[in-house]
């Protein structure tokens, strides 16, 4: 299993790389006003509007510190048509762990967002289940296929 490492405050965290589309440098986001404060903005990614959430804010209720190593991790959920961006601070490296290491790691919380705590050469690494964290955002995203059909219908009515 390959993990992408980042920090939330001083804590080392990781997400599984299997659903990562691309890791992008931090870009200027178009701020949007939503009832939920989990979406910090959107950006244009190859002609698609991508919502962005801040992992640090979702987990610790503090915004990520924007610095040189802050990245937008573009991930594809199985439950959404469009990718979503995750802001993560101090994204520096990956870590390959064996399935046995993942199985021997321990849960320290019953929260579905926080996975097992791994002991590695880098120290303790908290696995993060990002899909649980952003499930409300994913549920609120419009279906791109449906949006496209509505646009075609409107254009054909002229």
Q: Could you describe the largest sheet, including whether it forms a barrel?
A: 9 strands, mixed
- Which stretches are low in confidence, meaning pLDDT under 50 for 5 or more residues running? 145-158
Give the C-alpha Rg. 17 Å
How much is the average pLDDT?
79
Q: Domains counted in the coordinates: how many?
A: 1
Give the count of helical stretches. 5
The CATH level-2 architecture is identified as Beta Barrel
> What is the SS-derived class?
alpha+beta
The CATH class label is Mainly Beta
Please report the distance between the alpha carbons of the first and last residues: 53 Å
Shape: globular
Q: Beta-strand level of the residues, as a percent range? A: 35-45%
| CATH homology superfamily name | CheA-289, Domain 4
User: What's the SSE pattern?
Assistant: EEEEEHEEHEEHHH
Protein name: CheW-like domain-containing protein
InterPro entries: CheW, CheW-like_dom_sf, CheW-lke_dom
GO biological process, one term: signal transduction
Pfam families: CheW (PF01584)
Topology readout:
Blueprint: E1 2-8, E2 11-16, E3 20-25, E4 39-45, E5 48-54, H1 55-60, E6 71-75, E7 84-96, H2 99-104, E8 114-120, E9 123-128, H3 130-133, H4 135-140, H5 144-156
Parallel strand pairs: 2-9, 5-7
Antiparallel strand pairs: 1-2, 1-7, 3-6, 4-5, 6-7, 8-9
Summarize the structure in words:
- This protein is α+β, with helices and mostly antiparallel strands.
- It contains 5 helices and 9 strands.
- It is globular, with a radius of gyration of 17 Å.
- The protein has helices at residues 55-60, 99-104, 130-133, 135-140, 144-156; strands spanning 2-8, 11-16, 20-25, 39-45, 48-54, 71-75, 84-96, 114-120, 123-128.
- A hairpin with a 2-residue loop joins strand 8 and strand 9 (123-128).
- Helices cover 22% and strands 41% of the residues.
- It has a single domain, classed as CheA-289, Domain 4 (OB fold (Dihydrolipoamide Acetyltransferase, E2P)).
- Strands 1, 2, 3, 4, 5, 6, 7, 8 and 9 form a 9-stranded mixed β-sheet that branches.
- One of its GO terms (biological process) is chemotaxis.
- Residues 1-139 form the CheW-like domain.
- Pfam families: CheW.
- This is CheW-like domain-containing protein.
